[in-house]
Amino acid sequence: MLEMRPDCERCGSELPADQGGAFICSFECTFCAECADQLDETCPNCGGELLDRPARVGDALKKYPASTARRFSGNDN
Questions:
Q1: Domain range annotation of the chain
Q2: For 12-44, what is each residue's pLDDT tens digit?
Q3: Can you name the CATH fold of 1-64?
Q4: What is the pTM of this model?
Q5: Are 32 and 8 in contact (CB under 8 A)?
Q6: Which stretches within the chain are classed as H helix?
Q7: Cα dihedral across residues 69, 12, 3, 29: positive or negative
Q8: What whole-number distance in Å separates Cα of residue 77 and Cα of residue 71?
């Protein structure tokens, strides 16, 4: 099951689990659309492809809440 991380690792922007606009690699490194575009949709951590993260909504989000652990370090990659 996807962790659904709450923020962009590069800029810190909010990425709610119930909305589109997040991109992830196979290790779930998470970036906003703007940062993913600037990174040519390639994860700077593992070199993997960044793809659209699906949204989690309704009862699924209630039963399996998104992570609250933030990943933004404040460093510009």
A1: 1-64
A2: 999 999 999 999 999 999 999 999 999 999 999
A3: Herpes Virus-1 (3.30.40)
A4: 0.90
A5: yes
A6: 33-38, 58-63
A7: negative
A8: 13
